[in-house]
Amino acid sequence: MNKPHLERYPPIADYALISDCHCTALVSRTGSVDWCCMPRMDADSCYGRLLDWDKGGFCALHPDQEDYAVTRKYIPGTMVVETHFTTAQAEAKLYDFFIMEPDAEKQTLDNHVRIVEGLRGTMALHLEICPRFDYGEIIPRMRGHGGGIYTATGGNKGLVIQSDIELQVFEHRDLEATFTVAAGERKHLLVRFEAPERVDEAAKTENTLKDADAYLAQTTRWWSQWTRHAHAYDELDPQTLRSVVLLKSLMYERTGAIAAAATTSLPESIGSSRNWDYRFSWVRDSVFTVRALYGLGYHDEASRFLQFIQRTSAGSAEQLQIMYGVDGKRRLTEIELDWLEGYRQSRPVRIGNRASEQNQLDVYGEIMEIGWLWHSSGHPIDRHYWDFLADVVNTVSGKWHQEDHGIWEFRGRPRHYVHSKALCWAAVDHGIKLARSNGFSAPVERWEQIRNEIGAAIEKQGYDDRRGVFIQAFDSDYLDASLLLLPRTGFVAYDDPRMVRTTDAVCATLDHNGLLTRYDSPDGLPGKEGAFLPCTFWLVTCLAYQGRIDEAWQYYERAIHCANDVGLFAEEYDIEQQQMLGNFPQGLTHVSQIVARAALMSARSTSGHSSIGRMGREQAASDHHGTKGS
Fold first, then answer.
1. 571-622 per-position pLDDT tens digit
2. Environment class of residue 501 by beta-carbon count within 10 Å: exposed (0-12), middle (13-18) or buried (19+)?
3. 83, 260, 329, 592: which has the fewest Cβ within 10 Å?
4. The pTM is what?
5. Alpha-carbon distance 246 to 266, whole Å?
6. What is the rounded CA–CA span in Å between residue 353 and residue 334?
7. Domains and their CATH numbers in the chain
8. 571: CB partners within 8 A, 6+ apart
């Protein structure tokens, strides 16, 4: 606590995520839970000093001395974190996890468990439990009930805390203890979310602490079994395996929604206002995730997200949004929490996201992308689903000529972004192919005309004839890393000479020490953001499918070194300060890493023996059906 004010905040890379596909928490390298949202990953925080060191609340457990060493890791293939403390006299291991029940979709318990195991000697440790509800605005009342059971209540939240460590209630608000653990001994802490009206009854009748060790085994088994369902499990390198598990941890099991990240308002530029809430389900990011996981054999995740989109849009393309709450909520009103100082004084802290109200035309292409994936993998398209998809095509047919805010959700005036237009083209193209493949009744000739009109507009106004490259927006001079996604739409092949030149131009303009920024256009926001890690992985994919393998591997190696010691990526990376920026962990970075790795494996071997390489080749084949020439 004696650190200078800003230095009290650990680097973002110091954190590891735990999740039960409902709740999420970040555990620091030194054993402090500084961010925890229960009972949903987009709920108000229970611990939140990540965004205000003094007001946010935390749960810290560490050796009771200053001189100690720390190492940590995930149990392979799981979301269970092991933190290993070593002093001159002793060693101990701390396990952190949320309990996974056998049927995660119907899970009823929201329990964070911490188990300390003595390994050598006898270690003295210090524990503090300081919950703060509603993003630090509510200091709950803490009460002891005897038998190692305590409760914290305030507002619409409650916690039941159970421990075999003797805890002291401090000023009716916090719990604290100094205790020892000897070699072979275990101490346990369990924190369960409850509605406040149920807290007292739960404290009297429910005691799950005795099962804590069994829950550790159960949770480890659940994650390991899920992970091993991957078709290419034995071929996945450790980083790709970690990315796969991380993506699952961001899926909200009750609905099938996929959150973009586990946090809000971690800054894209330290001290600036580039702070956004990413704990929602973006259609675009989710389709990226579904496509990658589907290629690895996780078909249920694709099916459940497909159902989520149809439910939340009420089966109507006109009612589609670009993003939703993980429970399907549509109104994501953006609010600034002015009582919080923000991570390292990066104000404002925001909850909700005003981008949910934006017009982003690429959403229609993403919806049709998942429909085409479903069909091309052998699943039937029933009449109800086709009616929805045809509605999507008809809607984009009437809207494609509009300006929008684009993939980067610019908060200035809308423009005709090339990436958005290409996704409109892809939406109509997928609709035509689906209608013909299934014999569905559809105005195919009219759709073909519209598709050709969109393509002609892109070639005329979204392509710079002088430089021979695609550009960010119609009739502009700017470049944009989203152009690297054009082959994914099918509009142009990876090895089309125009795409090769565009790739080179993006590298020349947006490369900063081996990592890409998003664009070179002004965005009207203060501060300078870091390198956007997904873009570098998109570049790797392009280079790999263009046969430029050495270049692709160089960029790939540079990008994966931006992960922290447990294999987690943030959204961005500050090249000068060599630190993570933006919300964390960021799903889009992890899914882009998976796709890039598959592309590299595909380029390395064309024999068909590698499952992950085959996944990459199949993706490349589906992306090469564009009809445009050079």
1. 999 999 999 999 999 999 999 999 999 999 988 765 444 556 655 655 555 5
2. middle
3. 329
4. 0.94
5. 18
6. 5
7. 6-225 (2.70.98.10), 229-623 (1.50.10.10)
8. 261, 266, 268, 278, 532, 533, 534, 581, 582, 583, 584, 586, 588, 589
